[in-house]
Amino acid sequence: MKIRLEIPADYREVENLTREAFWNVYRPGCTEHFVLHCYRNNPDFIPELDFVMEEDGRIIGHVMFSKAELDLPDGSARQSWTFGPISIHPDFKRKGYGIQLLDYALDKAREMGIGFLCMEGNIDFYKHAGFDLASKKNIHYHDFPKEDVVPFFLAQELIPGWLKSNGIEEATYCPPKGYFVADEDPEAFEKYEATFPKKEKLRLPGQLGYDGIILESGRIVLRPWRENDATALYKYASDPEVGPRAGWPPHKSIKESLEIIRTVFHSDTTWAIVLKETGEPGGAMGYINSDGNHHPSRAGEPLVGDWVGKPCWNKGICTEALQLMLDHIRETTDIRSLIGSHFIDNPASGRVMEKCGFVPTGETCVDETLAGSDSPMRVLRLEIL
Ligand SMILES: CC(C)(COP(=O)(O)OP(=O)(O)OC[C@H]1O[C@@H](n2cnc3c(N)ncnc32)[C@H](O)[C@@H]1OP(=O)(O)O)[C@@H](O)C(=O)NCCC(=O)NCCS
Fold first, then answer.
1. Cα of 89 to ligand 1 centre, how many Å?
2. 93 alpha carbon to ligand 1 midpoint, in Å?
3. pLDDT at position 213, please?
4. pTM across the whole model
5. Residue 292: what pLDDT?
6. Tell me: domain 215-383, CATH 3.40.630.30, correct?
7. Is residue 21 lining ligand 1, measured as CB closer than 6 Å?
8. 193-206 burial, b if ≥16 CB within 10 A, otherwise e?
9. What is the spatial distance between Cα 297 and Cα 299, in angstroms, rounded to a whole number?
10. CB of 127 closer than 6 A to ligand 1?
11. Angle at 353 between CA 351 and CA 357, to 5 degrees
């Protein structure tokens, strides 16, 4: 792995990397690649802090810095700094590259005399590079009341004591104008975006302002999984009697449950089954594209999957959840049929599907990649009329 300054020959590759890294992460599609594209001609851009990260000759990471301002209560402004976009290619995320790139860039920034940075981001990542809530330093975020703790607004004194030595006890930060180019000139952005291969824009759980599809019936709510469900998920998914019945091994740690929430459950067709009585997720309900697995499915036919933890067994909760999801599918999609399956020695799962109108096809299948076992499964199908 190598970190070096960006050169003009890298520009297009780096903008493509930025697009790949941000696509559908915070909103459907993204605009960060356009921000970067325009920023290099912006007087706030700091070319000495414009780094790319290479692995085997391929650019897999990038970060840029910008001048910014802090507005002081007396009406004056003070020079400050910020950074971003920072991107790690999706194939290399969560492997420690982001933090290595950031640590390197922050050292270089400090060497240049940059004493204070504030920015918007996820503290779960940036805390690893020394960032904390800006409100702790009495730095406010524009657009928010001063007394608010803004959870995504972070800051760090790269040079300890920099704020005090600059006489700053309180200030307000507004991101530099350069970060808003796509909002200010949407036509220019669309023209630029059209120069890239088309990518599908998706509304996904976890994006800003997106609560996801929430469904409700008598005793339950189906809602997207959230990262802070990890403890509840672990409680039920670590039970050796639950996962293996549905074809997955018991979770071994809360960290593993969190990873499942971030990956397998990160979809707008997967829901937590939340019991109104406890407010906690007690199981999962969803459907996936069955192309490429070993079920005898029709082309494009979705495959239903569900499970509930022991406290929900034999109470009709799973049936209620499946029915709720099927009603939603009927009302909002063009799906004409769904396939489902269950291990032969787990008839309860088959009963849930039959109660919701699924009919056995008479087939069995073995789907080791999906079900993690070579035990045969009984296949059922629901025709949506
Ligand atoms: C954010 C990003 C730069 C992080 O780079 P990365 O290489 O994936 O992160 P790392 O592997 O170095 O992670 C370092 C730590 O931060 C955590 N972390 C990384 N991304 C995180 C996220 N989105 N949410 C919560 N924690 C995160 C990791 O779990 C790891 O912690 P651990 O050591 O306790 O496991 C990268 O994922 C990316 O390009 N994302 C899309 C674009 C983006 O969001 N940029 C930042 C905008 S503010």
1. 11
2. 7
3. 87
4. 0.69
5. 74
6. yes
7. yes
8. beeeeeeeeeebbb
9. 7
10. no
11. 110
